Amino acid sequence: MSLTLNAPLDMHLHLRDGQMLENIAKCSASSFSGGLIMPNLVPPVSTKEDVIAYKQRIIQAIGDEEFEPYMTLFFDPSFDREFLESIKSDIIGIKLYPAGITTNSEGGLSGFDVEELRGVLTAMSELDIPLCVHGETNGFVMDREAEFVSIYERLATAFPKLKIIMEHITTKASVDALDRFENLYATITIHHLLITLDDVAGGMLNPHLFCKPIAKRPEDRDALRKVALEAHPKVSFGSDSAPHPREAKESCGCAAGVFTAPIALQLLAQLFDEADAPIENLQAFVSGNGQKIYGISPIPKTITLEKSPFVVPNDYNGVVPMYAGETISYSIISKD
Ligand code: NCD
Ligand code: ZN
């Protein structure tokens, strides 16, 4: 049994920089037609020059593959309208991190006062630049995302024309918020559709499944699966594939991030197949919805998968993928 996906998109992707970029860029470029590139480098991507130069480095690292890096900027509340107008054509979104909440987010935002944000968010909304948000408070780890929902609600109400993307949602609380506000959207990762906290820490600790936000409860996963499998139009696939060197994961003080880029499409095919969900829904979840939400027309590219066992490699240039050494049930057989 085979299935063909048109122009799959990864709407939340960490490609890193330097040697790591060289090592892993092709893992995404060989499966996807494009990806929304996260700006959390050190230092973050926060000027027009940074965006243009980083995009060039990505294109260089990708080599011959056809892959569009859709660039983002690291949010700063001091961005003014003139600056945003000058950068609008170089980016498709601006990523907001609460300060210190995850990898390389030290320069993030430390308060969500609507009046303090009014200038920048009004300008973004008038210029139609989406705001992509890592939605976690610094509360108790299992409650961080649910606690952040009230901040999403405040922003969505104060800026009703601003497209707000709740990145990598992991809870039923976030899923429920989607339908309460016209301007709230979400991305969902493949790992959060497959695992719960039990897989991370219920038995032997698995550092390769440790990420922010942490995987939650079975009922949260069920809620995520429901909207992904039905291809809810406000939800798109974003892997949040976040590579770290093996030493940074298999260590005391494990870095947060799950590396899924090379197996994401195979796992999505497996999940939709096992759930008997229509292929059109997978196509919408992994491309059509993202195209509509961001108003983009991806590079034509087809990826064909078949139901045949694939043994996940133990590492890709020193980065351990999710399910390393395990057998999954779909393989990529051709690309066009
Ligand atoms: C990401 C990273 O490593 O850059 N880590 C993660 O656990 N997801 C950052 C992020 O998206 O939170
Ligand atoms: Zn991320």
Q: In this structure, how is the largest beta sheet organized?
A: 8 strands, parallel
CATH architecture verdict: Alpha-Beta Barrel
Order of helices and strands: EEHEHEHEHEHEHEHHHEHHHEEEE
Q: Average the pLDDT over all residues and give the rounded result.
A: 98
Output the structural class.
alpha/beta
CATH topology: TIM Barrel
Strand content: 15-25%
Bound compounds: N-carbamoyl-L-aspartate, zinc ion
Q: Count the helices. How many?
A: 12
Concise account of the structure shown:
The protein has 336 residues and is an alpha/beta fold. The protein has helices at 18-29, 48-62, 81-87, 114-126, 144-158, 172-178, 190-194, 197-202, 218-229, 246-249, 264-274, 279-294, and strands at residues 2-6, 9-13, 34-37, 68-74, 93-96, 131-133, 164-166, 184-188, 235-237, 302-306, 310-311, 327-328, 331-335.
Task: Please explain how this structure is put together.
The chain is an alpha/beta fold. It has a single domain (2-335), classed as Metal-dependent hydrolases (TIM Barrel, Alpha-Beta Barrel). Helix content is 37%, strand content 16%. The protein contains twelve helices and 13 strands. The radius of gyration is 18 Å and the shape is globular. The mean pLDDT is 98. It binds N-carbamoyl-L-aspartate (NCD) and zinc ion.
Top keywords for this entry?
single chain; 336 residues; alpha/beta; TIM Barrel; eight-stranded parallel sheet; three-stranded antiparallel sheet; 12 helices; 16% strand; binds N-carbamoyl-L-aspartate; binds zinc ion
